[in-house]
């Protein structure tokens, strides 16, 4: 396996330097790899630093965009020049720890019979040292949300957990899969590209995993303008994946409703409670209609807001 590590940079030179300082000593000695650094129109000295860094480090190259292309176009451009069998997309606002990469690589070997398409990892925030990401679930409003518990505590013997999605801050994907699903979609502007990619990978028949024993640190959303287009990007995700988000959101609704109802002492004669319990225990395949209706109403409410913001 040859790994192409791709780091897209837009300003935040100090974070880029810290990321690279942590990267080199944590790479396995036997790793066959290349490092591609791509600057997306920075104005803080990154455009001078990256070529100098590339000249003094093996297997490293630097690309300088003449103007800011955005996360999707910039990473797609770097991927076109990559020659690895697998692509490792890494944010420049991360810092790596010993042994972080090996579980990602090993996952594609040990999970081969489960058809892995993407493998991410566990990420801890610098701001408060809490877990920020251990996978993605769809909440009861139908929106993607981060799993924020420590998998080493919840299921300590499980090396990999299958998830709906993983974050774009750090993940490994076969280059053939990345090309097959159409790479990052450039309709997004610095947000939502990763969820869309995850869902495309799932639709193509692959599965998403998180390596529970791979941990990195993350300065969450540190890139300038990271949330400038959040609502627009989220709207595109919902326009494309509404039925999937509705289904998964209703499943979360059912689990939450059953737990809340138990705490309130709800009677078994309540059909929504009964159906939610049966679904949670795996004795019912579909969540109750009440849950589907509730999540659908919340999504519709949000769609009306977006229509008012952006038009039809």
Structure description:
- The longest helix is centred in the last third of the chain and has 35 residues, at 230-264.
- It contains ten helices and twelve strands.
- The model has no long low-confidence stretch (mean pLDDT 95).
- By secondary structure, the protein is an alpha/beta fold.
- Helices cover 41% and strands 22% of the residues.
How much of the sequence lies in strands comes to 15-25%
Q: Note the run of SSEs as H and E.
A: EHEHEHEEHEEEEHEEHHEHHH
Shape: globular
Nearest-angstrom radius of gyration? Answer: 21 Å
Structural class: alpha/beta
Largest sheet: 10 strands, mixed
Query: Mean pLDDT, rounded to whole units?
Result: 95
The residue fraction in helices comes out at 40-55%
Instruction: Give the count of helical stretches.
Output: 10
Which stretches of 5+ consecutive residues score pLDDT under 50?
none
Distance between the termini: 46 Å
Strand tally is: 12
């Amino acid at each position: 396996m040859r790994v192409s590590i791709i780091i897209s940079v837009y300003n935040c030179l100090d974070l880029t330097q810290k990321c690279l300082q942590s990267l080199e000593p944590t790479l396995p000695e036997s790793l066959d790899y290349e490092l591609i650094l791509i600057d997306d129109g920075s104005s803080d000295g990154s455009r001078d630093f990256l070529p100098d860094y590339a000249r003094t480090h093996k297997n490293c190259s630097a690309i300088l965009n003449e103007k800011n292309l955005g996360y999707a176009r910039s990473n797609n451009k770097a991927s076109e020049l990559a020659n690895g069998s697998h692509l490792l997309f890494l944010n420049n606002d991360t810092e790596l720890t010993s042994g972080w990469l090996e579980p990602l690589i090993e996952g594609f070997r040990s999970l081969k019979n489960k058809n892995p398409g993407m493998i991410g990892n566990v990420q801890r925030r610098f701001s408060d040292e809490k877990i920020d990401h251990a996978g993605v679930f769809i909440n009861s409003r139908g929106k993607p949300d981060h799993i924020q518990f420590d998998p080493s505590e919840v299921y300590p013997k499980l090396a990999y957990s299958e998830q709906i999605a993983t974050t774009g801050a750090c993940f490994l994907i076969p280059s053939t899969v990345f090309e097959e699903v159409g790479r990052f979609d450039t309709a997004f502007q610095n947000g939502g590209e990763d969820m869309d990619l995850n869902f495309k990978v799932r639709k193509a028949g692959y599965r998403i995993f998180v390596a529970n024993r791979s941990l990195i640190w993350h300065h969450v959303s540190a890139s300038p303008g990271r949330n400038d287009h959040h609502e627009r990007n989220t709207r595109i995700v919902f326009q494309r994946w509404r039925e999937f988000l509705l289904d998964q959101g209703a499943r979360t609704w059912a689990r939450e409703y059953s737990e809340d109802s138990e705490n309130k002492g709800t009677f078994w004669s309540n059909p929504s409670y009964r159906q939610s319990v049966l679904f949670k225990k795996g004795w019912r395949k579909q969540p109750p209609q009440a849950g589907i209706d509730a999540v659908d109403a919340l999504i519709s409410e949000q769609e009306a807001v977006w229509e008012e913001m952006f038009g039809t």
